[in-house]
Design goal:
Layout: E1 5-11, H1 16-28, E2 35-41, H2 50-63, E3 69-75, H3 96-99, H4 104-107, E4 112-116, E5 120-122, H5 127-130, E6 139-142, E7 156-163, H6 164-169, H7 172-182, H8 189-199, E8 204-207, E9 228-230, H9 250-257, H10 263-275, H11 277-291, H12 293-306
Parallel strand pairs: 1-2, 1-4, 2-3, 6-8
Antiparallel strand pairs: 4-7, 5-9, 6-7
The protein binds manganese (II) ion.
Amino acid sequence: MRNNINIMFAVTPDYLKYATVTAMSAVKNLKNEKINIHFLYADIYNKISSINIFNYTESIKNTFCNKNINIYFYDCSSMIQILDGQNMGMWGEISLSHYLYFLAEKLIDAEKVIYLDTDTIVNCNISNIYNIDIKDNVVAMAKPSGLESMGKDVSNAGVVMINLKKWKNEKILDDILKFGKTLKKSNFCAQALLHYYLKGRNLIYYFDAEYNIFPHMYIEKDISSMKILHYTGYTHCRPWRDIDHCQRGSDLWWKYARETPFYEDFIYDIIDRKIDECILTTTLKYKLKKKFPKLVKIYRYIKKFYK
Ligand SMILES: [Mn+2]
């Protein structure tokens, strides 16, 4: 058990199915390594019934029923009040789930763990990254290309290895949450918090950018050479919504989605969205924004005014 690889997800329960796709990609690329998969979740919006959550977790356990895989679920609902007072930015509670991985120290009995966003796909043996010696650093993150506009050293929190031993020993949780209350509102809240807290203390190890790569930004690179793909960004299509092949590497996401018990759900969702006018509005807005950025600003202003 001690030598197992540990990965974790932090989600609202409706995202457990997306986390399962990412977990499947990690599992399918293992050789004989053993892996513990930790799902931290909290029903922040109170919109999923406990029966549905039970059914999700049962399906996931059955999917990964293998002697090399251990699955753990942690309902963090009763713990999230410790996140009160963090500046979440304009996405508000949406961002709350991003903070759940800060709770790992209280739940996961391992020396280190890799947190993965649910919009990532592992395209390598994850032991390659798990076995990197991050020395005395508290976390390891990558600085993917595409974030330069946010600052020279800004790292992305879609893939984070946490040195849980050091995190616990140095009582980082209390300290980082205290620090979080002093930060200005930020839309990349949990990421900014990690970054500003740890960077000021020289506690971040930087992974090779290959371990957190935004496929649409590396047109010259083969998908097969990307180690962890991160389908990030609200202006770029998520693979599970990508009916028009707008997102590079979507097919890799669907390859693993097909192996989960949620494949039919994904198909249903995509059809549902297709017939929903909302998707048309979103696409239209996106296209308008691209072509007439000023027009969108005016539209926002008018909308605000009428609210
Ligand atoms: Mn992401």
